[in-house]
Design brief:
Organism: Tumebacillus algifaecis
Protein name: Oligoendopeptidase
Distance between the termini: 45 Å
Helix content: 55-70%
Order of helices and strands: HHHHHHHEEHHHHHHHHEEEHHHHHHHHHH
CATH superfamily of one domain: Oligopeptidase f, N-terminal domain
CATH class of one domain: Mainly Alpha
Structural class: mainly alpha
CATH architecture of one domain: Up-down Bundle
Bound molecules: zinc ion
Family: Belongs to the peptidase M3 family.
InterPro entries: M3B_PepF_2, OligopepF_N_dom, OligoPept_F_C, Pept_M3A_M3B_dom, Pept_M3B_clade3, Peptidase_M32_Taq
Number of strands: 5
Shape: globular
Strand content: under 5%
CATH topology of one domain: Butyryl-CoA Dehydrogenase, subunit A, domain 3
Largest sheet: 3 strands, mixed
Strand order of the largest sheet: 3-5-4
GO molecular function, one term: metallocarboxypeptidase activity
Number of helices: 25
């Protein structure tokens, strides 16, 4: 592949971008369909008519699929040009459609409870419904485990200005925060994002230290507000759970991720037993920086200046070569994405930051968004998004409701693709310095999962335990945070981050409770799959595709048992996964041993 285009083609979806007449017609049609659907659902009250149910579910599935299609399109438009005003108007209209469809689905949940057992069994056998039966059974179980439909409806109404309002208030509060930092005799006000980049990425330790101190100070000034915010959000959650008869704070997060508590516990247990090498890695980093112990603000600072650089064409070819080692089908797919302008990678102003992969169901195409800057990080982001794209591709012919995988398995294909590429980059590094830099980045990624995310999980559990009994003061929240960090980082740091709980959005999300452990699960699950791929060789590629296709049709335990023959509630699988990442840390320690001695 040579002279690849770095801009994508969106014209195949709707010609004319945000001004497209086709797009307007599509939205009009969808709006009509959703209105019609609400009417059809209303007729299902206490209905045991299997045929009527089958057709409503088919229409609902199509509406969800169509909605995703336009959401992807408008998301792509705004990402490529954040100032596209017309795209914002389109997005506003789509948000309304999404709310109407959501409301229709809530009514459907209520109707599901009125179907009698005989009709229910017949419905599950209906040829339109059978392929999506896992999704439907899950929805019904969910509805059963909650309060009576009228009470749930009231709870939902109250949550708009209660629960979700607390979540939204956090965004307002955090948006008002600024960090005052002195630079060259001048006091500068940094946004949260700017300050974070500065304290985590700057090579100058004094600057990191100063920005971090200013950060803690700024949050200390407002900690009462954040504490009230977190307490009320948490109090609402407990009150709702109590009324539903749920006594564990982890019930809902585990259900959403289709995993058992036993799996979650054994995963953390294995991680905990394998932290020694990662503590050694942190100690080595401290030596390389020239301090006794690292502080929180040193965790993501690189100790090395060696850089690996790839032009876009080189990066693309490297990715396709590595994918080919694993699976010719995956490589051919990636080649097609590069050659057919599925990727927007150009480095130019006016684009939004970050990367994503957007699916267009029905068309069986995806688009990848990112900004390519010749770095190894950009190559691995590209591989990551291509992993998501391949996941969507292998599910392309399946019904929409069998493609709605949860957060913990959503990152399986992406992390797997990233691992293929970053592991190959380490193997083909041209010097020890280059290899050390690549390994440091990789191991820091493991530490984020095993220690940072672990500290968030421990904190959140302990906070909810105390919140169950009453309000938790800001001072106590700081204590809980540091206790959790000490435990997760095994006392390996000099200075901790007491007001982390105030500065992290994830604790305030009302759509994703416990917005932490699914990251670690996804990372290790994918690494475990990678370990099996290494063991088994080329024949694994077909198994991998079969596994991806089932990611939204069963629990994670069933998924692992069926496709990998492993039991996720036992330590073996997790241990094999952790072992792969321990090897990277050991290699880093081996390569840097000499560097410390000569210092
Ligand atoms: Zn991802």
């Amino acid at each position: 592949m040579k002279n690849l285009s770095q801009t994508w083609n969106l014209e195949t979806f709707f010609a004319g971008g945000s001004e497209s007449p086709e797009l307007v017609a599509y939205l009009d049609q969808l709006e009509g369909n959703i209105e019609g659907l609400a009417g059809q659902i209303a007729t299902l009250s206490e209905s045991n008519n299997v045929d009527a149910w089958g057709s409503v579910l088919a229409v609902m599935q199509q509406a969800n699929s169509d909605l995703r299609y336009v959401m992807s399109f408008s998301g792509c438009l705004l990402a490529q040009d954040v100032k596209d005003q017309q795209a914002k108007i389109v997005q506003g209209r789509i948000a309304k459609l999404s709310a109407s469809l959501g409301a229709a689905m809530t009514v459907l949940d209520k109707q599901i409870l009125t179907v009698d057992e005989q009709a229910w069994q017949a419905l599950l056998q209906d040829e339109r419904v059978q392929p999506i039966s896992f999704w439907l059974i899950e929805r019904r179980q969910n509805a059963f485990s909650k309060m009576a439909p009228d009470l749930e409806a009231l709870g939902g109404d109250l949550a708009v200005d209660g629960y979700h309002a607390w979540g939204n208030l956090y965004n307002t509060l955090i948006g008002r925060m600024s960090i005052k930092v002195e630079k060259d005799g001048e006091v500068k006000e940094l946004s949260i994002g700017q300050a974070q980049n500065m304290y985590s990425g700057t090579p100058d330790r004094e600057v990191r230290k100063a920005v971090f101190a200013a950060w803690e100070e700024a949050f200390a000034q407002s900690e009462e507000l954040f504490a009230a915010n977190l307490n009320h959000l948490g109090g609402f959650r407990w009150a709702l759970y109590k009324s539903r008869g749920w006594d564990s704070i982890l019930k809902e997060p585990c259900d959403i991720n289709r995993m058992s508590r036993a799996t979650l516990d054994v995963m953390w247990d294995v991680i905990d037993k394998n932290k020694d090498t990662f503590v050694q890695f942190l100690d080595r980093k401290a030596e390389l920086i020239g301090v006794d112990k690292l502080s929180y603000y040193d965790l993501y600072a690189s100790t090395s200046t060696a850089k690996t650089s790839y032009t876009y064409d080189e990066g693309a070819n490297f990715i396709v070569e590595q994918f080919a080692e694993f699976s010719p089908d995956f490589a051919a797919f990636a080649k097609r994405a590069f050659e057919q302008s599925w990727i927007e990678a150009e480095d130019r102003p006016g684009k939004r930051p970050g990367g994503f992969c957007a699916g267009f169901p029905g068309k069986n195409e995806t688009r990848i968004f990112m900004t390519y800057d010749d770095s190894m990080g950009a190559v691995s982001t590209l591989a990551h998004e291509l992993g998501h794209a391949y996941h969507a591709h292998v599910m392309g012919d399946m019904p929409f409701f069998t493609r709605m995988y949860a957060m913990n398995v959503a990152e399986t294909a992406s992390t797997f693709a990233e691992t293929l590429v970053t592991s190959a980059a380490v193997r083909s590094a041209k010097s020890d310095d280059e290899k050390i830099a690549l390994l440091e980045e990789k191991v820091s990624g493991s530490i984020a999962m095993y220690m940072d995310i672990h500290s968030r999980f421990i904190f959140e559990n302990n906070f909810y335990d105390e919140r169950k009994k009453g309000l938790v003061s800001a001072e106590r929240l700081n204590e809980l945070m540091v206790e959790a960090q000490k435990k997760a980082y095994r006392d390996s740091l000099e200075l901790y981050h007491p007001r982390f709980w105030a500065s992290k959005l994830h604790f305030y999300s009302t759509s994703v409770p416990f917005y932490n452990f699914p990251y670690t699960f996804g990372y290790l699950f994918s690494t475990g799959v990678y370990a099996l791929a290494l063991q088994e060789g080329p024949s694994f590629a077909d198994k991998y595709v079969a596994l991806l296709r089932d990611t939204a049709s069963m629990t994670v335990e069933e998924l692992a048992q069926k496709h990998l023959g492993v039991d996720l509630t036992q330590p073996e699988f997790w241990q094999n996964a952790v072992d792969i990442t321990v090897q990277d840390a050991k290699e880093f320690l081996r390569l840097t041993a000499g560097k410390v001695a000569t210092k």
